[in-house]
Amino acid sequence: MQTTHFTSGEPAVVITRVAPRHWHALDDDVVIGRGEATTRPDGRVFLSVDAWHRSVFDQLADAMLADLPTPVYTVVDEVHTDLTAGWERAGFTIRRREWEYLVPTRQPTAVPPPGVTLVPRGSASEGPLRELDRVVRAEVEASVGWQEMPAEVLPRAAGDTVVDPGLYAAAVSGGAYVGLVRVVQVTRLPRIGLIAVRADRQRRGIARALLAEVLGSLHAAGIPTASAEVNEANPAATALFESVGARRASSTLELVRHGG
User: What are phi and psi of 227, to 5 degrees?
Assistant: First the structure.
């Protein structure tokens, strides 16, 4: 957790790198600030700083940046303007805004388009699922880039992009998987972490049917609400979630610092 409000004062501190990805700010051998660098599954390095004093935050950020290659990233709740300003002092700029939506799970049934059937969450076959995952990742990477997709929060082995096939529902057409949706639970609410449909099968209602399928299964399990994160620059995803009654609950900013 990053501290969001700074106090005045200029404590004399010593910044120490206590582990490859951890830094401490010491005032007379007392830890008054901590910094951490975390590598996400997509390979990007994200920084966080926990410090009450503005000057301690700045010194920790400077020390971490001196030790790490760029680019590096951080994520800030948009309401925490002090924290955003701190990262901007360290040379970070806003890269994108992501909305968190709260999604009601009680939904009318969405019928998939003709020739498409749905495989419920937990019943997808691993081989076809992995093949579809490779296809949609390549399509996204060739267009906007995979870094524009919602953050992948589950740890995984290098090269393994499907951590647990049981987290997915899928859409099938002509004997092949053409769409998928992934639902994980890393907080108090289930998180719809990914909805993807092959480029040649988009705009046919497959994504809407997949979303209704997983929301219906959550509702049947007694879960009234799920969450989802949507890039502000993705109007199709925004329209999809708002069409099922999702409401914006908060927003986060992703900031980046490049070299130079």
Answer: -120, 160
The model's pLDDT over 231-246, given as tens digits with 9 standing for 90+, comes to 998 899 999 999 999 9
In order of their start, the domains of the chain are 14-91 (3.40.630.30), 101-250 (3.40.630.30)
CA torsion 154-107-211-44 (nearest 10°) is -40
**How far lies 24's CA from each of 8, 35, 208, 235, in Å?**
20, 6, 47, 41
How far is Cα 189 from Cα 218, in angstroms, rounded to an integer?
Answer: 11
How far is residue 77's CA from residue 79's CA, in Å, rounded to a whole number? Answer: 6
Q: How many C-beta atoms surround the C-beta of residue 79 within 10 A? A: 11
pTM to 2 decimal places: 0.80
- State both tokens at 132: 């579809």
Cβ-contact 71, 40 below 8 angstroms: no
**pLDDT digits over 137-195, tens only?**
888 888 766 566 665 555 555 555 777 889 999 999 999 999 999 998 866 789 998 89
